[in-house]
Design a protein that fits this description.
about 325 residues, 2 domains, Sulfite Oxidase, Chain A, domain 2, single chain, disordered N terminus, 10 helices, alpha+beta, five-stranded mixed beta sheet
């Protein structure tokens, strides 16, 4: 018998711990409800009881032209199954460990190749958002996939506030570094390999200016929960989820391609672009299929996560197997 070692198993294949612990209940539910309902029953029984903190409500939201009509993933699923290693490596850790994370007051520094550098208060950034550009229901892929009604506006709205120098070719982002609040930043992770904190990410300038690159401050009609990247994050729906950096404190315009956390950690597995491309396998697993959070069966992964019509032109002439 061939048994996969943990390093051979992609996150999309790992059964959530509470789901595993409820396997006997699931078998009973499957017998009662039938195979067609088993996936939904399984996931519902797996959900933890960690509360979501009170949030700011956003009213009078208008859907974006890029809004998808796909079924929205339940908020409980999205807030209790997270990749946010600053708060732990288990999918349930962020919901537990981020409860007391302080997100107010919050500042975002804009630096680099701009004529005038500036530090924004969070409230100043939110006020930049025109009401007609405040809600985006997008697919996102992060080993699994989700459909979330994000609240935000195109990053380009913020970029246009600045006079950039001709050297501004890329945008680099940085997450808060605060081990006192973020227990995952203590010591090392992944069997001693560790991540080089703080978390950093980057986009090419034309990617950053695309209207699908969203500076996000809410979801489901409310401000972001701590475990989902509060108080402000990126959402880049045609790329894998780790590109959508959370809890941003710095945006820097630079001339050369900036380092990114997962590319530094494992350059043979994670490239700078990290576009959703089902034709290019991860070195340790196939990316041809994905599992939608809350569903039992897998589905086919779409090129650029289904946004090829909007973003494929950004990569004309590029070898997407080499530039992964």
């Amino acid at each position: 018998m061939l048994i996969k070692k943990p390093s051979d198993i992609p996150y999309s294949e790992v059964t959530p711990k509470p789901l595993y612990m409820n396997r006997r209940k699931f078998l009973a539910a499957a017998a009662a409800a039938g195979v067609g309902l088993a996936g939904a029953a399984l996931w519902e029984m797996s959900q933890p009881s960690t509360p979501v903190l009170a949030a700011t409500k956003y009213d009078n939201l208008v859907k974006s032209p890029f809004d998808t009509t796909e079924k929205i993933t339940s908020m409980n699923d999205v807030t209790h199954y997270n990749n946010y290693y600053e708060f732990g490596t288990d999918k349930s850790d962020p919901a537990k460990n981020a409860q007391n994370f302080k997100t107010s007051p919050w500042q975002v520094a804009v630096e680099g190749e701009v004529k005038k550098k500036r530090v924004f208060q969070l409230e100043e950034i939110i006020k930049l958002a025109p009401p007609e550009e405040r809600i985006y229901r997008h697919r996102c892929v992060e080993g699994w996939s989700i459909v979330v009604p994000w609240i935000g506006f195109p990053l380009s709205v913020l970029i246009k506030q600045f006079e950039l120098t001709p050297k501004a070719k890329y945008v680099a982002f940085e997450t808060l570094y605060d081990p006192k609040q973020m227990p995952g930043q203590h010591g090392s992770l992944f069997g001693g390999a560790g991540l080089d904190w703080p978390y950093v990410e980057g986009l090419r300038m034309d990617e950053a200016m695309h209207p699908l690159a969203i500076l996000c401050f809410g979801m489901y009609g409310e401000s972001l929960p701590n475990q989902d990247g509060a108080p402000i994050r990126m959402v880049i729906p045609w790329k894998y989820g780790f590109k959508s950096i959370k809890s941003i404190v710095k945006i820097r315009f630079v001339e050369k391609e900036p380092p990114t956390t997962w590319n530094k950690q494992a350059p043979n597995e994670y490239g700078f672009y990290s576009n959703v491309n089902p034709t290019v396998d991860h070195p340790r697993w196939s990316q041809a299929t994905e599992r939608r959070l809350g569903e039992f069966f897998k589905r086919k992964t779409l090129m650029f996560n289904g946004y090829a019509g909007q973003v494929a032109s950004l990569y004309n002439g590029m070898d997407l197997r080499k530039n992964y």
